[in-house]
Amino acid sequence: MKKIVLTGGGTAGHVTPNIALIPELKKQGYSISYIGSYEGIERKLIADLDIPYYPISSGKLRRYIDIKNLSDPFKVIKGLHQARKLLKKIKPDVVFSKGGFVSVPVVLAAKSRKIPCVIHESDMTPGLANKICIPCANRVCTNFPETIKHLPPQKAVLTGSPIREELFHGDKEKGLAFCGFTDEKPTLLIIGGSLGAVAVNTAVRSILPKLLEKFQIIHLCGKGKLDESLNGTKGYVQYEYIKEELCDLMAAADVMISRAGANAICEILALRKPNILIPLSAQASRGDQILNAASFEKAGYSIVIQEEDVTDQKLYDAVLQAYEHRDEYVKAMKRSQLNNSIEKIVGLINEAANKK
Fold this sequence. Notes:
Layout: E1 2-7, H1 16-27, E2 30-37, H2 41-46, E3 53-56, H3 72-90, E4 94-97, H4 103-112, E5 117-121, H5 128-133, E6 139-142, E7 156-158, H6 172-179, E8 187-191, H7 198-206, H8 208-212, E9 216-220, E10 236-239, H9 246-252, E11 255-258, H10 262-271, E12 275-277, H11 288-298, E13 302-304, H12 312-324, H13 326-334, H14 341-354
Parallel strand pairs: 1-2, 1-4, 2-3, 4-5, 5-6, 6-7, 8-9, 8-11, 9-10, 11-12, 12-13
Helix pairs in contact: 1-14, 3-4, 6-9
């Protein structure tokens, strides 16, 4: 039986693509193990999947001054030794990394053990963790054509992001019923990410009465970000977070408003949902969401409003435009090259494993 180690963590976007690959990897006969951090979200997400999980020490590699910069390199070194021991024990044929800082010691350990490695870069430009890992990788999968120029040409492959199979099997009627809605009005779904997005929440709620004249609204607003004063508002439901029913809610959506994290927008693209993207500002990030959104806007998949440019009127107009021209956006998304991602990535994994 072939063996593979999956790694990646820190945010859900570094884990859910790994989870999306698991059914196909099992179908192809792989025995799967996961190496992640002690406290990261990946441990919780992998717990229910009946896959051996091995935690290691990990530290964040920062580009800015922080007292933790003195201690975290030692955590990475400790993680490297732990990863080397684990890989010696597991003896995988290949490692697949979705990124995040926990992946760095695993990929470096794989290189030292001469184990082939395939990595995936979600964003337009590689983050620091993947920049460290790229020299150790056999192949680098990407979401955006623009990313290719930042990578060694012999390693880069445009694959798109693995999408969880269950997202394609959502039931619109179940989604509407879950919210107590009918199909008399189109449905607007707002997703601010796993932590929610205050700027997005505020913008939506400020024009809620106007939006409710034309739409019924499902608002996933993040933990601790419910507005209790809006409970009972006809045509509006809000949840901190939805897991099991998310595929049904996405099936029910006619238009979406979202942040521009790579995993989120690739799911929107795969489901061909007309959308408005409000990327995380450069002040609060390294600017990757801004670049991701720009690529989708250029391809005709999305309307983009920068966080600092959001006004009530601009957001309302964008929602109307996305809905009224929805056929054009869907047509553009159907032309995307970012399809069959799981098949492409598993093919690259097989190729690397067979070279060992």
